[in-house]
Automatic annotation (TrEMBL):
InterPro entries: AAA+_ATPase (IPR003593), ABC_transporter-like_ATP-bd (IPR003439), ABC_transporter-like_CS (IPR017871), ABC_transpr_LolD-like (IPR015854), MacB-like_ATP-bd (IPR017911), P-loop_NTPase (IPR027417)
GO molecular function term, any single one: transmembrane transporter activity
Matches recorded under CDD domains: ABC_MJ0796_LolCDE_FtsE (cd03255)
Keyword annotations of the record: ATP-binding, Nucleotide-binding, Transport
Residues in ABC transporter domain copies: 2-223
GO cellular component entries: membrane protein complex; plasma membrane
Protein name as annotated: ABC transporter ATP-binding protein
């Protein structure tokens, strides 16, 4: 369970202070599928980055399974990210010099498992998303949809309990976007992880089992 309490975030640019998030409360229960919609500039990405501990809140608290995590040391944050929290962005952000298989293997945090075991796990994941034949391909030669499918399984390599997605289909055409959404929903079912998707696409927003709107920094859930 990931819990955000009374979260505020302001950015200071020169003399002006912009309040981007205002007292946001959100509890992501295990297995939840939540969509967060809202107009551009409303603070969606900021909220997601705070939940992923990529940004620090101006005030408020974040808890993971009851443990406060917003004031952890950087090394502990990096452990959590990946093992407990998986991240997917609009662009796949794969490492261009590594092939898809290596991109998955390098994201695996369990230092103890053998290379062979990691390779097998990575192969299984690529096969799961229909990319077995591309495992040694040049990452830069993958299509946008293929690269994003690799990014989706990369977010899952360490079996996180929650996956945070910022406009995961934003850079894809509608057919590839649908494929990636279908994949995310199937993987959520298979793994039992919770899924939080930030989007300005109403069709994706409507899929959420819990739907939230972020407007001018204020989060409201549709009840
Ligand atoms: N690092 C930063 N420094 C200053 N201002 C920032 C920073 N990050 C975000 N902002 C501002 O916070 C506001 C919210 O930005 P955010 O990226 O969270 O919006 P968004 O809802 O994700 O928009 P979009 O749908 O366009 O992605 C914007 O006005 C933005 O300029
Ligand atoms: Mg955004």
């Amino acid at each position: 369970m990931l819990q955000v309490k009374n979260l505020c975030k302001s950015f200071k640019t020169g003399e002006t202070v912009q309040e981007v998030l205002k007292n946001v409360d959100l509890t992501v229960e295990d297995g939840d599928f939540i969509t967060i919609m809202g107009a551009s500039g409303g603070g969606k990405s900021t909220l997601l980055y705070l939940m992923a501990l990529l940004e620090t809140p101006s005030s408020g608290e974040i808890y993971l399974d009851g443990r406060r995590i917003d004031c952890l040391k950087q090394s502990h944050i990096e452990d959590l990210r990946g093992t407990s929290i998986g991240l997917i962005f609009q662009n796949a952000n794969l490492i261009a010099s590594l092939n898809p298989l290596e991109n998955l293997m390098i994201a695996m945090k369990d230092g103890k498992s053998k290379l062979k075991t990691k390779k097998k796990a990575a192969e299984q994941l690529l096969s799961r998303v229909g990319l077995s034949e591309k495992k040694y391909a040049k990452t830069t030669a993958l299509s946008g949809g293929e690269a994003q499918r690799v990014a989706v399984v990369r977010a899952l390599v360490n079996n996180p309990s929650i996956i945070l997605c910022d406009e995961p289909t934003g850079a894809l055409d509608s057919s590839n976007g649908e494929k990636v959404m279908k994949l995310l929903l199937e993987l959520r079912k298979e793994t039992g992880c919770s899924l939080v998707i930030v989007t300005h696409d109403e069709r994706i927003g409507a899929l959420g089992e819990r739907r939230c709107f972020l407007k001018d920094g204020v989060l409201n859930e549709v009840v």
